[in-house]
Design brief:
It is built from four helices and 13 strands. The chain has 243 residues and is α+β, with helices and mostly antiparallel strands. It has one domain: 3-Layer(aba) Sandwich (Glutaredoxin), CATH 3.40.30.
Length: 243
């Protein structure tokens, strides 16, 4: 049974991309997987490894957000930010959960999965891939200067009216970082972390009506992606990589 499960998961990991590109414009339809993790959490490494596997898929945007509430046990997570803890707590509040935990994966801002549960994660990603997009997002580098890209958003034709305020966030992340952990529950381990979020900035607001067009400045070489999300911690309606 374990062999069959592993085989099914490997097959799922190899699924082809659903993103397309036409006439110099990249149309993105990505499922966003946010992993809330910590270098001080002994149960997190399998989830960290699973997130790294997700980076091989072009239809998924995996992001690692390191929280700071494990720092008290003796090892301060080098990537942790109180803002990511607030983000996790915000998701919990919106969904009616009383607690947060690690490792936790949030899929498209809506569904949560224990971070190391590969098959439940596979089911959740597949379910979100099968849903119709509510927002179309296009990126056109030909309409921007060398330090930015032009972005256009509009509600998909078959989507219901978008009533909540929508925020557009620019996420900067590091593709891979390696850490030697000296203290805490994982003392003595050298661990790799993929798509480590380093910064999240709000770059635009939208009421979901008509078309929104704006330019995103890309002033440093870090990897970047856009999240179009119902504010403040609702569904992620669209996402796209910018480089």
């Amino acid at each position: 049974m374990r062999f069959v499960t592993s085989l099914l998961f490997a097959t799922w990991m190899a699924l082809p991309t659903v993103a397309t590109a036409q006439s110099g414009e990249q149309v993105a339809d990505l499922v966003v997987v946010e992993l809330f993790t910590s270098q001080g959490c002994s149960s997190c490494p399998p989830a960290d490894a699973l997130l790294r596997q997700l980076t091989t898929r072009d239809d998924v945007l995996p992001l690692a957000l390191h929280v700071d509430y494990w720092d008290y046990i003796g090892w301060k997570d080098q990537f942790a930010d109180p803002a990511y803890t607030r983000r996790q707590k915000g998701y919990a509040h919106v969904s009616g959960r009383q607690m947060v935990y690690t490792p936790q994966m949030i899929i498209n801002g809506q569904d949560d999965v224990v971070g190391a549960n590969a098959m439940k994660l596979a089911d959740a990603i597949s379910a979100h891939r099968d849903r119709s997009s509510q927002v179309a997002i296009t990126i056109d580098e030909s309409q921007s200067d060398t330090t930015g890209v032009s972005v256009t958003l509009h509600r998909a034709e078959t989507a219901p009216a978008l009533s909540q305020p929508i925020t557009v966030q620019l996420v900067r992340y590091a593709p891979l970082k390696t850490v030697d952990i000296a203290r805490g529950e994982l003392a003595g381990h050298r661990l790799d972390y993929a798509n480590v979020v380093e910064q999240i900035d709000r770059v635009a607001e939208w009421d979901g009506q008509g078309t929104l067009q704006f330019t995103v400045a890309l002033t440093d070489p870090r990897e970047a992606a856009l999240l179009v999300q119902q504010a403040p911690y609702g569904a992620i309606l669209a996402a796209a990589k910018l480089n």
